[in-house]
Amino acid sequence: MAREIKHVFPGGNTSTGFYSFYEYILDKEIAKRIICIKGGPGTGKSTLMKTIGKTFFEKGYDVEFHHCSSDNNSLDGIVIKNLNIALLDGTSPHVVDPVYPGAVDEILNMGECWQEFGFEKDKDKVISTVKTISKKFKRAYRYFGAARNILDDWSAFNEDAKNLNEVIKIKETLKKQILSDLPINTYGCERHLFMTALTPNGIISFKESHSKSYEKVFVLKGGPNTCKSDLLKYIGEEALKRGLFVEFYHDPFIPERIENIIIPMLSIAIFSSNEIHSIKLTNSTEIDMDALLNKDILLKNKDEIDFDKTQFYFLINKGLSSIKEAKILHDSLETYYIKNMDFNKIEHITQDLIKRIEEYSNH
Question: Which InterPro entries match (predicted)?
Answer without folding.
Answer: P-loop_NTPase
